[in-house]
Design a protein that fits this description.
By secondary structure, this protein is an alpha+beta fold. It has helices spanning about 15-20, 30-40, 65-70, and strands at about 10, 45-50, 70-75, 85-95, 100-110, 110-115, 120. The strands form two sheets. It has a five-stranded antiparallel β-sheet. The chain is elongated, with a radius of gyration of 20 Å.
Length: about 140
Amino acid sequence: MVNTHEVIFWTDSTTVLTLHQSDSRRYKVLVGTSVAEIQELTNVRAWRYMDSVNNSADDLTRGKTLFELFGKIMVVDSQLPGAQWPPGHVTEVIPGTDERVRTAVVQIKGKTFTRPVACLVTLPTIPDIDPVGPS
C-alpha cells in the first residue's frame, strides 16, 4: 500500500489555473460542471504551472523519437535492491517485426548491453518550474 501525503497537479495552461480558481457558476453548464467537479475533488492550491517546453506529457506530440524519450535510465537487476540498479542511457532502440520496441541497446559504465525495455526504468528530468504560474 502506498501512503500519499500530497498530490500535485501540473498543467501548462494558465487558462486551466484561472478556471480552477474562479466561481464555477460564471460559466456555461459544461465548463461550469467540469470546474465545479475539479474544485470538489482537488485542492486548488495543489495545482502548479509548468511551461509547455518542459511538459514531458507533450513529448510524443512534438515528434520526439523513442530514443530521445528514454534518456537516462536505470536497469532493473533482480539480484540487487532498487537503490543499486546501475544507471545508464539508451543508445538505440530495436523495433520488432511488428514495429513495437521491446528491446534497447543501453550503455552502462562504458559497456554496451542489449536489454528488454521492460527492464529499463526511466529517470525523470526535473525542469525549472514555477509553483505559482508564469510571470
